[in-house]
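Reminder to self: tokens first, then the designed residues, so the page reads top to bottom the way the pipeline ran.
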């Protein structure tokens, strides 16, 4: 399937850095990691139903949840916060990551989600979102948290932090 970039939302398909989750720096991501650990207790992972919106209110705009499709061959977006894809008018809820209109998102999210499924461990992602002249480039930090029951991983809850880079800024 050929994917065409949306004129209002497009980023270069650059690979993310994937690191251990305990290296997160953003305070909201750190809060979510601590909350994830508290919810899981002695279990391998918390369940999706363990998360109560009121308890994570400060992060809701940047939360996105993915359901595994065919044991992680693809991922279906089940919840997308309003701050996850700024500039994209098309709601991605219910759609597959492999069908996302942005080639950068398809690559980065696919790699990170696959990593979490293979390891069964939370992960931190770091990437630069290069968008060209239409949008603002951003440095992104993400936290990707496995959710499931028993030994069955069923969802990945992610929280993203976007830090926009001024046009022409060093390191962009």
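Designed residues (172 positions):
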């Amino acid at each position: 399937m050929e994917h065409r970039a949306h004129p209002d939302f497009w980023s270069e398909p650059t690979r993310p850095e994937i690191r251990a989750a305990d290296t997160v720096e953003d305070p909201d991501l750190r809060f979510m990691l601590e909350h994830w650990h508290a919810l899981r207790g002695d279990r391998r992972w918390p369940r999706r139903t363990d998360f109560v919106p009121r308890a994570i209110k400060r992060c809701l705009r940047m939360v996105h949840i993915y359901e595994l499709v065919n044991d992680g061959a693809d991922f279906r977006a089940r919840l997308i916060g309003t701050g996850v894809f700024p500039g994209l008018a098309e709601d991605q809820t219910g759609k597959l990551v492999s069908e996302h209109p942005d080639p950068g998102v398809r690559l980065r999210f696919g790699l990170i989600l696959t990593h979490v499924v293979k390891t069964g461990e939370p992960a931190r992602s770091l990437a630069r979102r290069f968008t060209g002249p239409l949008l603002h480039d951003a440095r992104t930090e993400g936290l990707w948290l496995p959710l499931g029951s028993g030994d069955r991983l069923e969802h990945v809850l992610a929280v993203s932090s976007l830090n926009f880079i001024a046009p022409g800024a060093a390191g962009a």
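The beta strands are 17-20, 63-69, 74-80, 123-129, 138-149, 152-164.
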